[in-house]
Fold these 2 entries.
Entry 1:
Amino acid sequence: AQTVTQSQPEMSVQEAETVTLSCTYDTSESDYYLFWYKQPPSRQMILVIRQEAYKQQNATENRFSVNFQKAAKSFSLKISDSQLGDAAMYFCASSGGYALNFGKGTSLLVTP
Amino acid sequence: EAGVAQSPRYKIIEKRQSVAFWCNPISGHATLYWYQQILGQGPKLLIQFQNNGVVDDSQLPKDRFSAERLKGVDSTLKIQPAKLEDSAVYLCASSIGTGGETQYFGPGTRLLVL
């Protein structure tokens, strides 16, 4: 079984600043994948970033990067140069190769 | 390319009534998922199809929920009879295969059971 924990129900960041969202997970799988998804108020879930657990290098996508600590089972998301459009619910998820197991989400507020 | 399509977007029914949701995945995607997202929570898998076969339906309340993907393309999810606790957003997602492939989500169907 896989569990995902997001300990920050809400976070706030000023425009142009950097924010880090936390995620820890537990899995018995040897091969697994980790994801961050963004869900704006319109509710369409969008992939932000994906990490294969066998890769030591942290994934990056433009202003989004992760800090993947495999031994600590930690997978945090860093958003640099925050923009108003980054405001959304952010879900951390894990997969052993099948369905996604989601955390409860972190609501990110971006202030001007 | 067209994304995952779902209909209807909103549905209001009374308890004990039945309801059906439809999903059309991205063309060529073999794997289709139905998730239930209750307000304030992350999505929870209800059922996963690989082509027209069921891979995982362990969390589907089979006494009231059913789903099919007859031709390995679009899918329907049905609830009969609905309960108040079924009020949620029902999300459909698809991926090319399994093995950690990225899942693409539809806009969801928001169900309110009165």
Entry 2:
Amino acid sequence: DAGITQSPRHKVTETGTPVTLRCHQTENHRYMYWYRQDPGHGLRLIHYSYGVKDTDKGEVSDGYSVSRSKTEDFLLTLESATSSQTSVYFCAISGDWTSQYFGPGTRLLVL
Amino acid sequence: DQQVKQNSPSLSVQEGRISILNCDYTNSMFDYFLWYKKYPAEGPTFLISISSIKDKNEDGRFTVFLNKSAKHLSLHIVPSQPGDSAVYFCAAQTSGNTPLVFGKGTRLSVIA
């Protein structure tokens, strides 16, 4: 299995609070991605990174920001969490644009 | 506008029979297609892929067929096993270093 971890694995927070999710890889892969999975929507790309400090928006980026200061870490921040951001968040990594390996997911509940 | 469509949210199949999961796409620029499998409380895992220069790719019990003219691909699992029960996501990509686009998934239940 690819060396990819996500933290925390579960989080409950209140509306309006900032939340940061961390993705850590030990594979030295160039590309990293953040997705959210919701019933009826499948996997939707939030943001992705193609190198340190190089990031771009995905399909559902509003309300989210990312940072990648090191190859191994990709952070996803919800600046002010809303109930619509209750979801399961998956990080993925890849050495090229295909063959993505996914982390175990973070289940986020915004009350 | 959904570019990758999995129109069947769920599918039930008896153990030992064939499972056929379907996927349609609208973007004719897609040239690489993948299937991922996801168990509850786990991340998706890569299953099988196919390039647009092929119309079939096989890996053990799993075969993916691509019909470019119909913009349709399918995943065949033969024989189906209870451990195949999972959500299957179809994904597609254009060439030139672009992110994957995923469908909404199909939940497969293999009944013993």
